[in-house]
Amino acid sequence: MRPTTNPNIAAPPIFSLFSLCLALSCSFFALRFIDRRSTNSISMAEKHFKYIALGGGVSGGYAAREFAKQGVQPGELAIISKEAVAPYERPALSKAYLFPEGTARLPGFHVCVGSGGERLVPDWYKEKGIELILSTEIVKADLSSKSLTSASGEIFKYDNLVIATGSTVIKLSDFGVQGADAKNIFYLREIDDADKLVEAIKTKKNGKVVLVGGGYIGLELSAAMRVNDLDVTMVYPEPWCMPRLFTADIAKFYEGYYTNKGVKIIKGTVAAGFSSHDNGEVKEVQLKDGRVLAADIVVVGVGGRPLTALFKGQVAEEKGGIKTDGFFKTSVPDVYAVGDVATFPLKLYGELRRVEHVDHARKSAEQAVKAIKASEEGKAVEEYDYLPYFYSRAFDLSWQFYGDNVGDAVLFGDNDPASSPHKFGSYWIKDGKVVGAFLESGTPEENKAIAKVARVQPPADSLEQLSKEGLTFASKI
Questions:
Q1: Consecutive sets of 10 residues in the chain, 477 residues long: mean pLDDT of each?
Q2: DSSP state of 350
Q3: 282 forms bridges with which residues in the sheet?
Q4: Rounded CA gap, 476 and 278, in Å?
Q5: Cα–Cα distances in angstroms (integers) from residue 396 to residues 170, 393, 399, in the given order
């Protein structure tokens, strides 16, 4: 039986069917697009915190501990760090981390063990309700809208911000030094840098190492490299090592001691270029004075720069850092800056300074948090009254310095590199007062005594008498 047809119903034109299909298709893709936009908007939704500490270094970790002490509530605080691990004691990287045996490893040196406190492992932050946001680089800061934007587009809003971004290393490539991008040229700032250097030490056993720079990194790492039985040469342009702190008399001891330990020292010149093997690894270091040094590993330690670029033009700056008051408040309400990036009033000397050292990183973070909480509660907190403090450990040496290294310096004790137990020190005298004190191989009691000298600033009538008295002078204060 043939199907019947209705002559009153016309067959649909082809273009009508095409239009219908196109409309349905567009509707489907539109729905998919809307769904995708909706999903993206959810994944990139803003996060809001009462407090954000930007930076996961020493200052960030100590700020977290102080917030917890001050009773921060779960969900109120976030620590944002571009590193992949919870805050740790950075000085360990240039010391025990590189030793061949008994090396320091995480979680052993998370903050706050450097000051004798509890070790803040990742679970500690969870227990306190503090959000630890790792592997997150902030690329934009808008202080007027109180927002931070990450490289992946996440937006973090805050009520109070603590800038704890620290410093970054100065690289030779910044100055256009030829070949400075060769493999096995290292800088030490973060734990990833240390891991790469440890791997190179294992790979280049009995190899040649060139340390570029004669400051903290040069002195501490040249010692660590010698402990690993590597052939070490240290190169720096100044007339003696650690010139920002050491006098010629102090440096004489360390240069002699390091030489006796097998470290070769070349002064008065700089690295002008590098040549590489076919595999891209560094081969030689060309010095400005024409000498060429063979190198399997190069470590560069020529200083650092505070990481303030995110805030340029938004906040007052001075002396290379973000200007703060004695509570670490910046020129922008509800924004604080601590550690390496802060230029603050050094009350003891009545001037503004920026201090790059772990001791200040810890104490400034604690001060800022105390100030934030005191402000909320309508309470007062003492202004920051910092005594500058620096220290170092290398080989079997350990020195501490307190105060200011200005004025006339007077040496006491025996600074002969061959002597034992090589205990000696120095005082600095300005306007008839002792304003600074340095001591190598001091006991805890002796170190406390020189710290008290620097704080009290007692009068010194005779440099010669001060030299003769030495530590006896400090013990009487």
A1: 39 42 45 43 74 98 98 98 98 93 91 96 98 98 98 97 97 95 97 97 96 96 97 98 97 98 98 98 98 98 96 97 98 98 98 97 98 96 98 96 97 93 95 98 98 98 94 95
A2: T
A3: 276
A4: 64
A5: 29, 7, 10
At residue 461, the pLDDT reads 86
224 vs 394: CA distance, rounded Å: 8
Give, in order, the Cα–Cα distances in Å from 118 to each of 10, 108, 217, 358: 86, 11, 27, 17
> What fold does the segment set 396-476 form as a domain?
Enolase-like; domain 1 (3.30.390)
How many C-beta atoms lie closer than 10 Å to residue 264's C-beta?
15
Collapsed DSSP state (helix, strand, coil) of residue 309? helix
In the chain, what are the helix, strand and coil shares in percent, each to the nearest 5?
Answer: 30, 30, 40
The fold adopted by the segment(s) 172-302 is: FAD/NAD(P)-binding domain (3.50.50)
Listing DSSP states for 11-35 in one string gives: PPPHHHHHHHHHHHHHHHHHHHHHH
**HSE-up of 127 (CA within 13 Å, CB side)?**
7
Contact criterion met (CB below 8 Å) for 171 and 61: no
| Superfamily of domain 46-168+306-377 in the CATH hierarchy | FAD/NAD(P)-binding domain (3.50.50.60)
Strand pairing category for 297-300 and 292-294: unpaired
What is the C-alpha to C-alpha distance for residues 94 and 192, in angstroms, rounded to an integer? 13
Q: Global pTM?
A: 0.89
Alpha helix stretches (DSSP H) within 7-160 = 14-43, 58-69, 122-128
Q: Assess contact for 433 and 406: CB atoms under 8 A.
A: no
Q: What is the separation, in whole angstroms, between the first and last Cα of the chain?
A: 123
CB 113 within 8 A of CB 61: no
Q: Are 46-168+306-377 and 172-302 the same fold in CATH? A: yes
| Domains of the chain, residue spans | 46-168+306-377, 172-302, 396-476
Written as six digits, the tokens of 92 are 């360990």
Please tell me the distance from the alpha carbon of residue 175 to that of residue 321, in angstroms, as a whole number: 22
Output the pLDDT for position 44.
Answer: 57
Element (H, E) at 10: none
| Cα–Cα distance for residue pair 369/51, rounded to 1 Å | 10
Give the other-Cβ count within 10 Å of 382's Cβ.
12
